[in-house]
Amino acid sequence: MDRGELQKLMQAVAAQRIAPARAVERLLHLPFEDLGFAKIDHHRALRQGHAEVVLARGKTPAQVAAIAKRMLTKRGSHHNVLITRADKKTYAAVKRVARAAKFHPLSGVIAIQRNRDVHGKGLILVVTAGTSDIPAAEEALIAAQIMGNHAEALYDVGVAGLHRLLEHKKMLDAARVIICVAGMEGALPSVVAGLVGVPVIAVPTSVGYGASFGGVAALLGMLNSCASNVCVVNIDNGFGAACVASVINRL
Asked: Which whole number is the average pLDDT over 103-129?
């Protein structure tokens, strides 16, 4: 339930179209619903503007499907549902309870899109240094779109060939928020941030050879960026970057 749905419910009670007892019944599972193995936060969209996102890793396919089913069948709910870090077995289980579910195997995202309302004020642009960074970038891209933003991608424009990035300067200038995804030494966010006057959310990835330390080198490089409009999320955390970008894009 989001703010609009709650307001409509209160208006219906005030207009005597719904009895107070029925309204209370609809609100019984706010702020959460206990499934035993999970407590679904139906209240999150009201507080934060988007529904709870399900992390599939560490959960069984049956658990993920049960959570998705309750989120979809909650009376009055019309939210999109996003599941991250899933595999084919989890997708098969979710597909049985949600025919509209779509699986993105590169990022492991399952998206169930029930509305395409756009709440964001501008473009969220997702930029990657290399093709190997696309899995984390795709997670960010789909999450941003599911959260009600216009989001586009610009892939493989890293510092090994900066002419590829400069070719798209107009696209960079059109963005309200940029998510910049890079592995190896993680240099691209500093370059991008130096070209624009908007927030750049840097996502270090675990892509790279031994001395990249599974993304730690990129993380430290981004944290030490000399560009003042760079902020950093955790390694491979495309979803987290999308959340921050979405909040900024609504302001």
From this structure: 95
Q: What is the CATH number of domain 123-250?
A: 3.40.50.1970
Average pLDDT over residues 21-42: 77
Write out the two tokens for 139: 């997670």
Domain ranges for the chain: 26-112, 123-250
Which pTM was predicted?
Answer: 0.86
More confident residue, 169 or 12: 169
Q: Please, what is the angle between helix 238-250 and helix 134-146, to 10°?
A: 40
Q: How far apart are CA 76 and CA 149, in angstroms?
A: 22
Which residue type, as a one-letter code, is found at position 250? R
Q: How far is CA 20 from CA 17, 76, 77, 243, in A?
A: 10, 16, 19, 35
Distances (CA, A) of 245 to 179, 187, 220: 7, 20, 21
> What is the spatial distance between Cα 111 and Cα 45, in angstroms, rounded to a whole number?
17
pLDDT at 12: 86
